[in-house]
Design a protein that fits this description.
Keywords: Cell membrane, Membrane, Transmembrane, Transmembrane helix, Transport. Belongs to the BCCT transporter (TC 2.A.15) family. By secondary structure, this protein is mainly alpha-helical. Helices cover 73% and strands 0% of the residues. The chain is globular, with a radius of gyration of 23 Å. The protein starts with a helix and ends in a 16-residue tail after the last helix. Residues 450-480 have low confidence and may be disordered.
Length: 480
């Protein structure tokens, strides 16, 4: 990524020379960010620091100040640069294939065309896309299983009703309605507005907690934790617990890498879809810098707020989590905030919209991959989008009904591993295409783009004569 950012490849425009970005910078980032992290970050921002404090890595004694020093850094580590760099792996090759090479399908297999050739449209390409769809359904199902109980618990607190399976179904039904309507309306009227709204409301809640909470502690420990994370980055990355027989790496690190890889196909395809008119350098900055910083700000506020409650013995968050469940631990933390009666409805809205943007995007991408052709705006038929919205909602209900969350998590790990090979194929294909295109540019040859529609024999020569220079930012005059 650093090579792409610094090299001349970073200035490549994703589209024709006169193409403008489809969305404003704010909306573009809002859609990438809300889709990339979903509602899980609101859940894990409280759970993980307390869990790491009481079950730390590297043989550190549980519940000590030494354990506290590792709690937030590991939280930042799992939701930081590596996660977003994994997202960027398929994003850039897919965007280049879509808007420079003009490949007409929003599929991972299409971006592998330079290496796979005609096989990208055959059985091998179908295997790649089906594996991606299976993994995507798995990680989205896991997300629903994680976040739905939390939203149900908030609703139970608001209306003084017990959390039952029926309430969980109502929560998922609300999601299906919300992201079903959004995905039906499309990117401009649906997902963009949903993402913009969500960023604003989450930013407002985060600022409020930062101001009314232990501000100095939050700020100091956030800065310190970022320093610890960078200083021990490789130690955290390569820790396997070999000498102390701990399962921390298997329970957290391995699962998270597989989790991000499973989500990367979704984020990669979606980011590529909304990045027309951007440059490769802009994509790298947004995904590998702005994305992690956004996560660290949110985690730094909520994670440190919960950790401070535990360290100060104000609220026994860990005991509540162990004895009553993680959702009760989160609720105990939220109830310590001023105006909690007002904040809880805002948290419900934020959870619903945060997750809806992810599920909305998943429906859009699944329907795009499953559709034989897209419309003139690059979107699949609306009926396909609604179908996949219903499928994702049904999967969530099934997961909660059978209590199969661990099985779904395992499936995301199993599918995530072979997806690494797919991303490697995409990356090699991308590098091959870029080098060939630059070589053609430097030698005055033609940059051939894949046709959007099948070529007839009568216009084959005309297409092969097409000569555009997307690197110089203007049309080439070669051969005219």
């Amino acid at each position: 990524m650093r090579g792409l950012f610094l090299a001349k490849f970073g200035q490549i425009k994703l589209g024709d020379p006169d193409d403008k970005p489809e969305f404003s910078n704010f909306s573009w980032f809002a859609m990438i960010f809300t889709t990339g992290i979903g509602g899980e970050i609101m859940y894990q921002s409280v759970i993980e620091p307390i869990t790491f404090f009481n079950d730390p890595p590297f043989g550190v004694e549980s519940g000590t100040l030494s354990a506290a020093e590792w709690a937030i850094p590991h939280n930042f580590f799992y939701w930081g640069i590596l996660a977003w760099a994994i997202y960027a792996l398929p994003s850039i090759p897919m965007a280049y294939a879509l808007y420079v090479k003009k490949i007409p399908h929003l599929r991972l297999s299409a971006a592998c065309r330079p290496l796979l050739g005609k096989h990208s449209d055959g059985l091998l390409g179908k295997i790649v896309d089906i594996a991606m769809m299976f993994g995507l359904i798995g990680v989205v199902g896991t997300s629903i299983g994680l976040v739905a109980p939390m939203v149900a618990r908030f609703l139970g607190e608001m209306f003084n009703i017990p959390v039952t399976f029926g309430l969980l179904v109502i929560v998922i039904a609300l999601w299906v309605i919300l992201f079903g309507v959004s995905v039906y309306l499309g990117l401009e009227k649906g997902l963009k507005r949903l993402s913009n709204f969500n960023i604003i409301i989450v930013a407002a809640i985060t600022a409020f907690v930062f101001l009314v909470g232990p501000t100095v502690f939050m700020l100091d420990n956030t800065i310190q934790s970022i320093g610890v994370m960078f200083n021990d980055f490789f130690k955290m990355s390569l820790n396997l617990g070999a000498t102390n027989n701990e399962s921390f790496a298997q329970d957290w690190t391995v699962f998270y890498w597989a989790w991000w890889i499973g989500y990367a196909s979704l984020i990669g395809l979606f980011t590529a879809r909304i990045s027309k008119g951007r440059t490769i350098r802009q994509m790298i900055i947004t995904q590998c810098l702005i994305g992690p910083v956004g996560c660290w700000v949110f985690l730094g506020v909520f994670g440190n707020y919960a950790l401070n409650l535990e360290l100060s013995n104000l609220v026994p968050v860990n005991s509540i989590m162990v004895n009553s469940g993680q959702t009760e631990g989160i609720m105990a933390v939220i109830n310590t905030l001023p105006f909690s009666a007002i904040l809880i409805p805002l948290f419900v809205i934020a959870y619903l919209v945060f997750s809806a943007t992810t599920f909305d995007t998943a429906s859009l991408i699944l329907s795009s991959v499953a559709s034989k052709k897209l419309d003139r705006t690059g979107q699949p038929p609306r009926i396909h989008r609604l179908f996949w919205a219903l499928i994702l909602g049904s999967v969530g209900i099934i997961v909660l009904a059978i209590g199969g969350l661990e099985a779904i998590q395992l499936s995301s790990v199993i599918v995530g591993v072979p997806m690494i090979l797919v991303f490697a194929l995409m990356t090699i294909s991308f590098i091959k295409s870029v080098k060939e295109d630059f070589r053609q540019k430097d030698t005055g040859s033609t940059l051939i783009r894949y046709p959007v529609h099948p070529i007839s024999e009568t216009n084959q020569d005309q297409v092969s004569e097409q000569r555009e220079d997307v690197f110089a930012g203007k049309e080439s005059n070669i051969g005219k």
